[in-house]
Write a structure and sequence with these properties.
This protein has about 375 residues and is an alpha/beta fold. Helix content is about 25%, strand content about 30%. Strand 14 and strand 15 form a beta hairpin. Helix 1 packs across helix 7 and helix 3 runs antiparallel to helix 4. The chain is globular and about 65 Å long. The two termini are about 35 Å apart.
Length: about 375
């Protein structure tokens, strides 16, 4: 039996996770993190029904500084960040786990849909295909994985809801949480504009021709097609897409869709899930709900990896996270710092480097 702090969010997934750990005979304490939109009443009600102690830890200041402020700063730098991965790494499985261990807990548990296999090393694997959340946990290093319980494993969302209803949990029918929890209406552009203000600049072609203006590079990301408001259509009549974001220069570079194709990535610093660097043939996923692509991974001397893709993928933005898989097993994860096509010649590679490569986030 282990003494486990369950991160009880107030949703159905963590509620069922806590119930399953109780059934398995563990000593469970419900811990609700005060972050943003507070669901502590729902979490407290679940803890009461399960008959477990309930703790409310106020992490609002840390969440503001380490997640919300970071999110705005990264967009201002021309990156496309994933705040859920940042929150997982720095708060939920960083500061929260540290506090839990200091208080005598053996580790913590969450309601994520992913699996842990073995304990030396603890392998992180994909969960249910329709709900797999291993991507957002892939940034967790081996010492964290060894103190982590994921009771939902490969369960489906439908199974979890049915179980919650059978147990009489009041959150059984609660709606899914938002992708970016602190942007309540889902309008990221408006949220950034209110926070960062007007930062006008030019929208240009790959040759540097001015095609329009914008109110802030943070409103654009690689692969974007809508909302460009160009002065005239392309000569070939085809739509144009954002190819690069030059935040320091205030420029947004646009061009044809085929120029979004990349077959080489650099990502890092890398978290090796097993604690040991692995090279060879794997699959890589660059979005939480994206399709995996066959690749070859090569470790670099600076703690990064070079990822060669068997087939080009489109719309890769710096700031996204590349997660490498071996079948269902998570191998590594790192923030994408560069992407380019090896098939468009030296001039094309130079263009990609000048518009897509940005410095590593050194705040960690």
């Amino acid at each position: 039996m282990a003494k486990i702090a369950v991160a009880l969010s107030g949703g159905v997934d963590s509620a069922v996770a806590a119930a399953r750990l109780l059934d398995a005979g563990h000593d469970v304490t419900a811990v609700h993190l005060g972050l943003w939109a507070d669901a502590s009443d729902d979490a407290r009600a679940v803890a009461a029904i399960l008959g477990v102690p309930f703790l409310l830890w106020d992490f609002r200041d840390e969440f503001q500084r380490q997640v919300i402020d970071d999110f705005a700063d990264e967009y201002a730098r021309g990156l496309t960040p994933n705040p859920c991965l940042v929150c997982n790494r720095r708060l939920k499985f960083g500061a929260m786990l540290d506090r839990a261990v200091e208080l005598g807990f053996d580790g913590m548990a969450t309601g994520h849909y992913a699996r842990l296999v073995g304990d030396d090393p603890a392998e992180l694997h994909r969960g249910d295909v329709a709900k797999d959340q291993s991507y957002v946990l892939a940034v967790l290093p081996q010492p964290v994985l060894r103190r982590l319980w994921l009771p939902l494993g490969a369960s489906s969302k439908q199974e979890v809801r049915q179980e919650a209803q059978a147990r009489g949990l009041p959150v059984a029918g609660k709606a899914e949480s938002m992708d970016v929890c602190f942007i309540e209406d889902g309008d990221t552009g408006a949220w950034l504009a209110a926070r960062l203000g007007s930062r006008p600049g030019q929208i240009v072609s790959e040759s540097g021709e001015v095609l329009g203006t914008h109110d802030g590079t943070y409103l654009y990301t690689i692969g974007q097609r809508r909302g460009l408001n160009l002065r005239r259509p392309a000569e070939d009549g085809q739509p144009r897409y954002v190819l690069g974001v030059d935040a320091p220069g205030g420029r947004v570079v646009v061009g044809p869709r085929e120029h979004l194709a990349v077959d080489k990535l650099v990502a890092g610093p890398v978290v090796w899930s097993s604690g040991i660097a692995e090279e060879g043939q794997f699959e890589v996923q660059v979005r939480a709900h994206g399709e995996p692509s066959a690749c070859v991974v090569r470790a670099l001397a600076d703690g990064c990896v070079e990822i060669g893709l068997a087939n080009p993928i489109f719309g890769v933005a710096p700031g996204q996270t590349a997660v490498v898989y071996d079948g269902t097993r998570v191998v590594a994860a790192g923030v994408i710092t560069a992407s380019w096509s090896t098939g468009i010649g030296d001039q094309g590679v130079a263009h990609c480097l000048s518009t897509r490569v940005l410095p590593l986030n050194s705040k960690d």
